[in-house]
Amino acid sequence: MKFLLTSGGINNKSILDALVDMLGKPIADSNALCIPTAMYGHPWVGPGVKAWEFISGKEENPMVSLGWKSVGVLELTALPSIDENRWKPLLQETDVLLVSGGDALYLNHWMRQSGLADLVLSLNSVYVGMSAGSMVMGPNIGEYFVGWTPPNGDDETLGLVDFSIFPHLNHEMLPGNTSAAAERWAAGMPGPAYAIDDHTAIKVIDGEVEVVSEGHWKLFSP
């Protein structure tokens, strides 16, 4: 599994070029599965019209609408109730997973409950996250981003990369996501942490981390 962890989707040429390079073939020749689950846990984006817009490729932040050969939906909340043989082959055949934003802890919960968390590292595909879809890959998200409260009550996430992410840095619609807020957030994180804006992504291949950006970002080291 290769990771392309974005704040705002594939919304500039640098991030798009990085994605195509990771795929190793054109987007038009690649099959995708979109995962909208995180949206349902966040009051701003789901359920309802925003989830439909993401799945249908009418999303504000480009992911599903990039011109894939095919796009399917993998809804994690449904997976525990159906036979694994009905969805695991889809994962093994897909070229890319497109994971929406929303609530990172809700997504973490259902990635674990569905069994997807146990399979991610064995997949020969590209994982593209947006916002919460990126944050869930780190070891934890920090109290600042806790919304939906998981059964264990903490902010722990999957830890498939060794850094945490503060998305939407200095976003005009999120006045609280300032550089100063990111610095305070990072001070409470136990490991490396990146603050990234919507024109920045973090590329991870075999543990090697590269920032792809046409915007602003900052690495905070413990």
From TrEMBL:
Pfam families to which the protein is assigned, alphabetical: Peptidase_S51
InterPro entries: Class_I_gatase-like (IPR029062), Peptidase_S51 (IPR005320)
Record carries keyword Cytoplasm: no
Protein name: Peptidase S51
The keyword Ligase is annotated on this UniProt entry: no
Entry similarity comment: Belongs to the peptidase S51 family.
UniProt keywords, alphabetically: Hydrolase, Protease, Serine protease
